[in-house]
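Ticket reopened. Same input as before:
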Amino acid sequence: ETGVTQTPRHLVMGMTNKKSLKCEQHLGHNAMYWYKQSAKKPLELMFVYSLEERVENNSVPSRFSPECPNSSHLFLHLHTLQPEDSALYLCASSQEVISRQSRNGYTFGSGTRLTVV
Amino acid sequence: AQKITQTQPGMFVQEKEAVTLDCTYDTSDQSYGLFWYKQPSSGEMIFLIYQGSYDEQNATEGRYSLNFQKARKSANLVISASQLGDSAMYFCAMREDLIIQGAQKLVFGQGTRLTINP
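Engineering reply: fixed in the latest deploy. New output:
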């Protein structure tokens, strides 16, 4: 158990459904992240939140909608997805980093494996 | 933009042998950090080892060590005395940038799938 919990672990949804992915961290970290991991592609950063404020949005389609109600919880709301959105969605958190030399990287959750049918 | 290259899609090693996983990176910054993560089939990304660009010594964490060659921009992971449980995907990552309010952006390579044979 890393201290970052993602639910559900697996999700199958139709293209017209609306669902949400949940991430919760118990580490006291101030930043949270969503990454997408597709087969044979590097991890893609989707969204970054710091102190509950969205600080990065990497040109993600609007069918993905993040929400960070407090520093411990992060959601990814999904609607009208496409089959190519099937992937492993990883949540991560990190402590405040003020130096490029900091050894504090990400702590990841176990991911949600999403299948869009 | 920074870039991470892992040239070995797959590696097969006999149990108890040492294995080196390659990672090269591209950056014009002098100050940066490099990470290695392990991803078992369960999906969770597990932090293994960190190397800062100003660190004079190669990083070591138990059976993991990092062969850091700054001039060559390589940061290879060495696993000594491999075990069956080491079978997993391994990702090299670099801290690409610091974002406001203490957040950070890591960029990852495509990974190497390591299989340990009994």
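The mean pLDDT of chain B is 94. Residues 76 and 93 of chain B are 11 Å apart (CA to CA). Please confirm and we'll close it.
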